[in-house]
Structure formats: C-alpha cells, structure tokens
Design goal:
212 residues, alpha+beta, four-stranded mixed beta sheet, 13% strand, Reverse transcriptase domain-containing protein
Length: 212
C-alpha cells in the first residue's frame, strides 16, 4: 500500500470548502484545516492507519439528511423534495483520498472506456457532442444513415448497487487495499433526519447520497 504523504493528505483536506455545513459531529472543514495546520503528523498517522487496516470508523458512516423543496412542486409529495446529506468532514477527507487513488489507477490502466465522458478530468458534454457530430458527418460523407439511441436512467445514483461497484473494481484488478477500504466505507452506513423533537434513523445499502 502506497503511504499517504503530506502533499496527498493536504490536497484532500484543502479541497473542501471551509464554508460547508458540518455533519453530525459539528466540525466544519475550516476547523479540520486549522487542526491539520497545527498537528499534521497526527492526521497523517490517522489516515495511514485507516488505509493500512482497511477501516472506516462507524461514526463517520452516519449522515444528517436535510430536505429542500423543489420550486413549483406539490409540498405533499415526497418526490417534491431533494435530500442533501451532511457528512462528517473527516469522512469526506478519507472519501477524497480513496476516490483520487481509484481514479488514478483506473486512468493509468485504461480501465475506463474512452467514451466515458462524465466525472473525468478534461472531459465533458462538449467532448461527447463533438464525437457525436463527427460520427454523423463521417456517415454522411459515406451516404449512410446514423441512428442514435438515448437512455435516461431515472434515479441512477439513488439506486447504485454497492456490491456491483465492488465487483467491478475487483474485475478491474484494483489493488486489494483500495477494495477493502471501499468495502468498509460502504458497510453499515446510515442516515437520519429530525422529525420535530425526534431523530429518525435508518440504514442504507445502496445509492450515492447527494452531498457526499
């Protein structure tokens, strides 16, 4: 397992906006940044230990859910609200390190299809449209028709199957330590929200909560 250095950890911590709302622990990113500037070696030892033992602390797996109403939607319908998850700042640092290392491996080993445009650096909708236009023009020159089929997967992120994600990482020959820490990160996660004076909590086993 490659050891985390101060440069990598510093990037993960400083990538968070200091103004973001805190999670269940009440610690916002600005406080984490301040503490890291004062006791960097303590943070370094902590996150290296978490990777070494493939362990994500249980308290980091709980998120507070806040519901924002969608403009112009009926207030009595559940789908009229957008749930935003407030995660703990330290959890997001670990998430950033895992994500960065996974992306680095997948890109270096060409494990991502060349036509995958979303969630990749220096790629976006413009590149996708350029490829489509180029394909159509090429077919037109050859006097051939072009047919395009478009799918819209409703709730794709809400329904993301974690086991399938882990299986795909294994198929891509991702380093076992990354798969193990990802498995720990996804295991026994929970969310909760306040209903009057009562906290309602339930476990989740799929999906990518907005705000993470």
């Amino acid at each position: 397992m490659p050891v985390i250095g101060h440069a990598e950890l510093g990037r993960a911590i400083n990538s968070q906006k200091g103004s973001r709302a805190p999670g269940p622990d009440g610690i916002n990113p600005a406080i984490v940044k301040l503490l890291y500037s004062r006791i960097p070696d303590l943070f370094l030892g902590l996150f290296n230990s978490l990777l070494r033992f493939s362990y994500c602390p249980g308290v980091w797996k709980f998120a507070i859910v806040i519901f924002f109403g969608k403009r112009g939607k009926p207030v009595e319908l559940a789908q009229s609200y957008r749930p935003i998850c407030l995660l703990q700042s330290l959890s997001k640092v670990l998430e950033k390190i895992i994500n960065n290392r996974l992306i680095l491996y997948l890109e270096r080993n060409s494990a991502i299809h060349n036509r995958q445009y979303g969630f990749r650096e220096r790629r976006g909708t413009t590149h996708c449209l350029n490829d489509v236009i180029s394909c159509v023009k090429t077919r037109n020159i050859r006097y051939k028709h072009t047919v395009m089929v478009v799918f819209d997967f409703a709730g794709a992120f809400d329904c993301a199957n974690w086991q399938i994600i882990l299986d795909k990482l294994a198929e891509s020959a991702v380093d076992p330590y990354l798969i193990n820490i990802a498995c720990s990160y996804l295991n026994n996660r929970g969310v909760g929200f306040r209903d009057g004076d009562t906290w309602v909590r339930f476990n989740i086993d799929r999906g990518c909560p907005q705000g993470s």
